[in-house]
Amino acid sequence: MSYGYPPPQPDRQPSPYQQWPAAEVEIVNHSGARASCIVNVEFMDGDGTRHGEGPASSSSLDAGQKSVDGAQGLGKFTGRLTCRVAQVSRFPTR
Fold it and tell me: At a CB cut-off of 8 Å and minimum separation 6, what does 75 contact?
C-alpha cells in the first residue's frame, strides 16, 4: 500500500485533490471462492491523530485474483500522513 501524495510545486496552486489523503490498495482474494472485498484505510499524522478514512473495494474477485483500487480520505491535510488498514470486509459472490 502506498500513501500520501507529492507536495505541490511552488509555482502552482494545489488542487483540492492534492490536499486530500489517498492510498493505492492491492486487494487479493486469499479465499477458495469468488468474493467481493471492502478495505477501509485510515490516514494519520506523526502524532497518531486521525485525519480521515477512505474505502477501497473490488467486486467478484476469483480465488487468488488481485485488484488495485484507490482509497481517498475526505478531509484536507497538507502535511505528511501515514496510513493503515482499519478494517477488511469480505463477502461471497456468485
Answer: 20, 21, 43, 51, 52
Q: Output the pTM of the full model.
A: 0.75
DSSP letter for 75, please. S
Neighbours of 41 (CB within 10 A): 25
At 55 the three-state DSSP class reads strand
Taking the C-alpha atoms of residue 88 and residue 75, their distance in angstroms, rounded to an integer, is 21
Residue 17 C-alpha cell reads as 485533490
For residue 82, give the amino acid letter: T
Residue-wise pLDDT tens digits, 31-68: 899 999 999 999 998 899 998 899 999 999 999 999 99
